[in-house]
């Protein structure tokens, strides 16, 4: 390889011409992973498994087979269960769990020829905005040793930004692909809810969780998403729709398109550099031929509190399965009974943030509070979705900041969870509505940290989001790279 950050097209060309083999690519990236251990982006590496996958890819290449990702190295957020690697969800509860099957997304990427380098660090059970909640220690941002990479897909964003992998998988419940992408200067897209199977994704909030790709370019995200998406009968929420060829249809010409600017997203506390990049984003999209229009999303201010009722409520139900009986950690004190085992196992296995969200979720679902909190939050969710429906009568895609600030220092918000939750204020509305949304790198702030712009599209219009993202990518010319400190 001639570049630290090769794209999929370059790697495919090199593999097809036999300039490099899948095994050589895997070995090179395994060296990078080992050399970057101080980033703590990876939580499990199995060199023998990776090289076996690479050898199989080389055999397919030798046989003249073609596949979108044949021989391309990647890594998976450790929220997807996998064979050959541990599947921990960043939790002590599953610290040594070995899955007997692959998540559907993992399996689809394997069939497309991808070679897995291992599992990537994440906030425990995907609950967090900084990747500091992992039982295996925080992941670090490649742009600054003492900055967070964002969460919960922080390991994925950090690994791509540092050149450890060209592409990675992530999951997004309330912004967990988009926010770390913005913090680490990479591109990430959350597709329409139901586009990618949730089968084999360790559940946090089932009505919100959605898989998506993270990469260094819009083109690579389109390629990855094409391999990940598709109907899966094993997932009751999976959409029975054909998968478009998003890569082939990429087009940065936005003439005839309208880009909506939500007036409610000008929130107090947003960094001026973020607001400046938003203005620049408008100019870039206008230069691409789009018309800029104002739109209103009046229930935006209620989206974040509604999310932090709905998501913990679903989490309290989903995490009830971790009881020490069937799999994972079991803490059985001497002379204890079944209830004691439940209590001891969960006390030892879950971290503070997971316990906090379970408690919130159990409270809002309890008798006497269900209607006051959970029912009202679901009504707000419906209103947020209706806001987007009305806005999309006036525009084709919405442009907004991805986050209110750039990456913040490690440990700076650990004692203030409410401020931490505010990092998702711009990302949560699209998640509540199940809409496709992506973050694209825009610029660098005065502290040398990347800033991202967010694009939100109509249901099933990933193409419109990708095309607008490509227009920004081409005009932003974001080629900055983190200065290696790890």
Task: Describe what this molecule looks like in 3D.
- The protein has helices at 8-16, 22-35, 47-62, 104-111, 154-161, 178-184, 218-228, 272-287, 300-318, 338-349, 352-365, 370-391, 417-421, 428-433, 462-476; strands spanning 42-44, 73-77, 115-120, 167-172, 187-190, 210-215, 258-262, 291-295, 397-401, 437-444, 450-457.
- The protein has 486 residues and is an alpha/beta fold.
- It has a domain at 8-252 and 436-476: Amidase signature (AS) domain (Amidase signature (AS) enzymes, Alpha-Beta Complex), CATH 3.90.1300.
- It has an eleven-stranded mixed β-sheet, sandwiched between helices.
- α9 (300-318) crosses α11 (352-365).
- The chain is globular and about 70 Å long.
């Amino acid at each position: 390889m001639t570049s630290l950050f090769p794209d999929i097209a370059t790697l495919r060309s090199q593999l097809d011409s036999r300039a490099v083999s899948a095994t050589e690519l895997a070995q090179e990236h395994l060296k990078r992973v080992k050399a970057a251990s101080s980033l703590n982006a990876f939580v499990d590496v199995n060199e023998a498994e990776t090289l076996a996958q690479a050898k199989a890819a080389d055999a397919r290449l030798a046989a003249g087979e073609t596949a979108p990702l044949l021989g391309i190295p990647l890594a998976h957020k450790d929220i997807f269960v996998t064979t050959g690697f541990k599947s921990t969800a960043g939790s002590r509860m599953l610290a040594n769990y070995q899955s007997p099957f692959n998540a559907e997304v993992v399996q689809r990427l394997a069939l497309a020829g991808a070679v897995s380098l291992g599992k990537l660090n994440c906030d425990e059970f995907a609950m967090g905005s900084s990747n500091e909640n992992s039982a295996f220690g925080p992941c670090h941002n490649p742009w600054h040793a003492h900055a967070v990479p964002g969460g919960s897909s922080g390991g994925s964003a950090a690994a791509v930004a540092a050149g450890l992998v060209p592409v990675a998988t992530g999951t997004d419940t309330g912004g967990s692909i988009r926010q770390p992408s913005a913090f680490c200067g990479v591109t990430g897209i959350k597709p329409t809810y139901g586009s990618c199977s949730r089968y084999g994704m360790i559940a946090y909030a089932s009505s919100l969780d959605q898989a998506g790709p993270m990469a260094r370019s819009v083109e690579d995200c389109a390629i990855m998403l094409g391999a990940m998406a598709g109907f899966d009968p094993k997932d009751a929420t999976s959409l029975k729709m054909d998968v478009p060829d998003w890569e082939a249809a990429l087009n940065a010409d936005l003439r005839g398109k309208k880009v909506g600017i939500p007036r409610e997203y000008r929130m107090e506390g947003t960094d001026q550099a973020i607001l400046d990049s938003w203005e620049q984003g408008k100019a870039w999209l206008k230069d691409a031929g789009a018309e800029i229009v104002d739109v209103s999303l009046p229930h935006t201010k209620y989206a974040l509190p509604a999310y932090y009722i709905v998501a913990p409520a679903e989490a309290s139900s989903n995490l009830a399965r971790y009881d020490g009986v069937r799999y994972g950690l079991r803490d059985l004190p001497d002379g204890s009974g079944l209830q004691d085992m439940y209590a001891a196992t969960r006390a030892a296995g879950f971290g503070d943030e997971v316990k906090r969200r379970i408690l919130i979720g159990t409270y809002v679902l309890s008798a006497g509070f269900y209607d006051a909190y959970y029912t009202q939050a679901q009504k707000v969710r419906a209103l947020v979705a209706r806001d987007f429906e009305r806005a999309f009568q006036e525009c084709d895609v919405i442009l907004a900041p991805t986050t209110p600030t750039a990456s913040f220092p490690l440990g700076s918000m650990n004692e203030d969870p409410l401020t931490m939750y505010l990092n998702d204020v711009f990302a949560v509305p699209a998640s509540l509505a199940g809409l496709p949304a992506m973050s694209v790198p825009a610029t660098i702030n005065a502290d040398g940290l990347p800033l991202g712009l967010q694009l939100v599209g109509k249901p099933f219009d990933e193409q419109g989001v990708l095309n607008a993202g490509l227009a920004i990518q081409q005009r932003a010319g974001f080629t900055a790279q983190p200065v290696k400190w790890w």
